[in-house]
Write a structure and sequence with these properties.
Bound molecules: flavin-adenine dinucleotide
Structural class: alpha/beta
Radius of gyration: 22 Å
Distance between the termini: 13 Å
Number of helices: 16
Strand order of the largest sheet: 7-6-15-16-17-14-18
Number of strands: 19
Largest sheet: 7 strands, mixed
Strand content: 15-25%
């Protein structure tokens, strides 16, 4: 209890899930202190400002905005007073090595026409494929992703029982690539839809076809851009949290969760080289669950089989200020590799192909203040293996050259001299900046059909008062699921007022 007779809750980490959990707990009557190691909130969802350019540092694609709005509504606030976003008419522009250019329109009819015309995929096959993904969504999403899988209550609900009877329809017994080839019969369309496996750091040649649910979220609910860029999500949620009374303490590292045999009691931190103890009636860790056990709870037995699951892939990002504008580019752009299978084989082997698929995000297409006049803010990303102590300096130098060659070829201009400023993020810096094990973007990989059941629970089975949220635990990584993890973990906690 604190001086207001309110129970104290500590949230470790002000990543997007930690902020969401803080809001939910404060609304449940706790006094929440959210302790963050960095000097800024957001974790992966942060921003970089350099030489007149603004870049979103991590996530760039925003789907399911309703999960952000929900937090404002829970607090009886109008989301639009804090947070605004616009719908993208073009979800993404795709460039293939043979010169094919495809625009993925949000409008379904336009999208189907474009797919038929450019990728030679029949409308019937596409319609069947999209319907199948919708079915997977209906069977899995509300039942398995919006609820804890570690609670009997979840399995006793009628919708769960109905879903269990329909499990054969979620296509979990074959890989995404096998299913996509069988249905679409167009190599380029297969590559197009296989790419969605990377949305949670998986390999489409291994991950179950159940992951086709991911593109459904984008095509059914849309792709969005927050008014001031992705960081607007973090910023507006921190403002909401503070307005509710959540306290944030930055530049403070939690070193240990203090507990007795059964209950959490406090956290021990370092702040400005001094030790601090904060008492807590309950603790939610938004730190990667691997490091929560290894660093903060080294005195209890860790669930090794869950912690040692294969981790998702990571990313190498070049933030480039580009001294030119390109009409052929949009907010989201993909330059596909020629041999997609080889690209993932390399990632699995801990390497990077010489012809990686390159993703470019340019928020200045819509947010003019993100770049100076006649310039663009390019967030240039490739998927790479997670950190296994590779020679990253060498891999980064080679990849930088390969990316510049590829983009210069496909955009028909030498882009090297157009780069006026640069920042780089790689698996090592992702790990050191956010404490994500091996710099994996999404915790465990989803490369097998049991992956959803092999993520850590949102509640500790060992210590009363200890909970987990964030991309490394159930239901997984990516902003929508990280936000859901905050809901699921706080659903375990009773209101205290
Ligand atoms: C380059 C990149 C691109 C991505 N693209 C997308 C995308 O387009 N769309 C999408 O939906 N998702 C994307 N993601 C994934 C998404 O960013 C994450 O799933 C999500 O932000 C995870 O949030 P989180 O709260 O779980 O964790 P994090 O953001 O990792 O936050 C954890 C926080 O805890 C803090 N912390 C850790 N340990 C301690 C400690 N001991 N004491 C105090 N604080 C601590 C860290 O400093 C950090 O701030 C991307 C991620 C990256 C890195």
């Amino acid at each position: 209890m604190n001086s207001d007779n309110r129970k104290n809750a500590i949230v470790i980490g002000a990543g997007i899930a930690g902020i969401a959990a803080s809001i939910r707990l404060q609304l449940k009557g706790y006094q929440v202190l959210c302790i963050e190691n960095n000097s800024y909130p957001g974790g992966k969802l942060s921003e970089i400002k350099k030489e007149g350019f603004r870049f979103d540092a991590g996530p760039s694609l925003f789907t399911m905005p309703q999960y952000v709005d929900e937090l404002f509504l829970l607090a009886n606030k109008n989301p639009r007073d804090y947070f605004n976003y616009l719908a993208l008419e073009k979800t993404c522009v795709y460039f293939y090595e043979d010169g094919t250019k495809l625009t993925a329109y949000a409008d379904k009819e336009k999208f189907m026409n474009e797919m038929q015309e450019k990728l030679n995929v029949s409308k019937n096959a596409l319609q069947y494929f999209l319907q199948k993904s919708k079915t997977i969504y209906e069977i899995t999403y509300h039942v398995f992703l919006e609820r804890s899988l570690h609670r009997l209550k979840t399995f006793l609900r009628w919708p769960t029982i109905q879903s269990i009877f329909r499990l054969a329809q979620i296509d979990s017994m074959r890989s995404m690539n096998t299913a996509n080839e069988a249905i679409l019969k167009s190599d380029k369309a297969v590559q197009f839809f296989n790419r969605y496996a990377t949305y949670n750091g998986s390999n489409p040649y291994k991950a179950p076809a159940t992951l086709n649910v991911i593109h459904h979220l984008e095509y059914e609910f849309g792709a969005w851009l927050p008014k001031y860029g992705m960081y607007h999500i973090t910023d507006s949620l921190v403002k909401l949290a503070e307005s509710l009374g959540v306290k944030f303490q930055y530049q403070t590292k939690v070193e240990r969760i203090i507990h007795d045999q059964r209950n959490v009691q406090a956290v021990e931190c370092t702040h400005q080289n001094k030790n601090e103890i904060h008492n807590a009636d309950l603790v939610i860790s938004n730190m990667d669950v691997y490091h929560t056990y290894k660093k903060l709870l080294s005195d209890i037995e860790a669930p090794e089989s869950i912690l040692n699951q294969t981790k998702s892939s990571s990313a190498l990002i070049f933030y480039w200020g580009i001294n030119k504008t390109y009409d052929e580019l949009d907010v989201h752009n993909i330059f596909f590799s020629k041999d997609y299978k080889h690209e993932f084989d390399c990632i699995d082997a801990g390497k990077i192909t010489n012809d990686p698929t390159v993703y470019i995000n340019i928020t200045s297409k819509k947010i003019k203040s993100d770049a100076p006049d006649n310039a663009e803010n390019w967030f240039v990303m490739i998927n790479v293996p997670n950190n296994q102590d590779q020679n990253w300096d060498e891999l980064i130098a080679t990849s930088r050259e390969n990316i510049i060659d590829k983009l210069s070829r496909l955009l028909k201009t030498d882009i090297a001299p157009l780069i006026v400023c640069e920042e780089i993020l790689d698996p090592r810096s992702i790990e050191s900046k956010t404490s994500s094990h091996r710099g994996a973007l999404y915790g465990n990989s989803s490369n097998n059909q049991f992956a959803a059941f092999l993520r850590h629970s949102n509640k500790s089975s060992k210590l009363k008062g200890l909970y987990f949220c964030g991309g490394s635990v159930h239901p997984g990584g990516g902003i929508p699921l990280a936000l859901l993890s905050a809901k699921i973990c706080t659903d375990f906690i009773e209101h205290v007022e």
